[in-house]
Amino acid sequence: MSRARIQLVVYRNEFEAFRRTITAVRACVRHAVASGLVEGVTVAIGDCSPTPSLDAQQVSALAAELNGVAALTYTFFDANLGSAGGSNRLATEGDEELIWVLNPDTYPTPSCLSVLIESLAAEGVGACDARQLPIEHPKGYDLITGQAYWLTGACMLVRRAAFESVQGFDGHHFPMYCDDVDFSWRLRHAGWTLRTAPRATVFHDKRPTPEGLPSGSEFEHESGALARLKLARRYCRPELERRELAAFEAAPVPALNRAAADFRALDRADDLPAPMPDAAAVADMEQDYYGPHRFRYAL
């Protein structure tokens, strides 16, 4: 059996949201322990908020909510490290063989962790992710083997050996958006296989538009566009970089204009990811979701 570290990076979360997620995690750990898959589980919360989201009494209440199935730690970073930097910091605080990166706005089903561990058991598989509901992610994967092009960071289980082989997430260049894409591609470049486990399901609290499409804030659109340009730089797609940079600058969309301006400023400051000339084969930059789609959301 392996030890597992369950990591939640938070920012200004409400206590009841913590309680809901911890309740779901407790059920997951119970299921995995009863199945003989894990022992010695720790739930690690890392707080990027300007002021602590939890006081000592609330931390104690959450620990009691786990009812002895897992230990709980709470770290106030006193800095906004982003989801990537926060995950890296939490990982250094333990040595468990498995790291489960979990968004604080997710509620995994009781069997989720067990199925993820089983999917990770094959030789050479470095990480796996779960199927998201109610807005399912359209990214593709092999429907027989589960082999995936990249994994989403909302619910991702990683071998520590794989995590450390690529020095974790790139918290500097990809603090929040596309950190999971970049991490996945670097894992593949290092020789690890990725899998999606569709039987492992997690509710991710994303709200659709009135038309039933995935929604996104201005910040998400801007950060996502900037991250896409950074990926093009790291994974040696200069033609794509030039084309999309020009398109973002010409678009009648302020978020895209700001992303293009930020990218040019970072380029002048020599603060973009260094190109990886031999890594282009692991990066699919031609499609919206960084690889083949299983389906598309459309009106």
Please summarize what this structure is:
The protein folds into two domains: 4-204, Spore Coat Polysaccharide Biosynthesis Protein SpsA, Chain A; 218-282, no CATH class.
Describe the structure.
There is one protein chain. This protein is of the alpha/beta class and 299 residues long. 37% of the residues lie in helices and 18% in strands. The chain folds into 2 domains: 201 residues, Spore Coat Polysaccharide Biosynthesis Protein SpsA, Chain A, CATH 3.90.550.60; 65 residues, no CATH class. It is built from 9 helices and 8 strands. Strand 1, helix 1 and strand 2 form a beta-alpha-beta unit. Helix 7 runs antiparallel to helix 8. The longest helix has 20 residues.
Topology:
Blueprint (H helix, E strand, L loop, with lengths): L3 E7 L4 H20 L7 E6 L8 H10 L5 E6 L5 H11 L5 E5 L3 E3 L3 H8 L5 E9 L21 E5 H6 L13 H11 L3 E12 L13 H17 L3 H13 L3 H15 L31
Parallel strand pairs: 1-2, 1-4, 2-3, 6-8
Antiparallel strand pairs: 4-7, 5-8, 6-7
Helix pairs in contact: 7-8, 7-9, 8-9
The helical percent reads: 25-40%
- What is the helix/strand order? EHEHEHEEHEEHHEHHH
Gross CATH architecture of the largest domain? Alpha-Beta Complex
Domain count, please report it: 2
Whole-number mean pLDDT: 94
- What Rg do the Cα atoms give? 19 Å
**CATH top level assignment of the largest domain:** Alpha Beta
User: How many individual β-strands?
Assistant: 8
The major beta sheet can be summarized as: 8 strands, mixed
Oligomer: single chain
Instruction: Flag low-confidence runs.
Output: none
Range of strand content = 15-25%
The chain-level structural class is: alpha/beta
Fill in the CATH topology of the largest domain.
Answer: Spore Coat Polysaccharide Biosynthesis Protein SpsA, Chain A
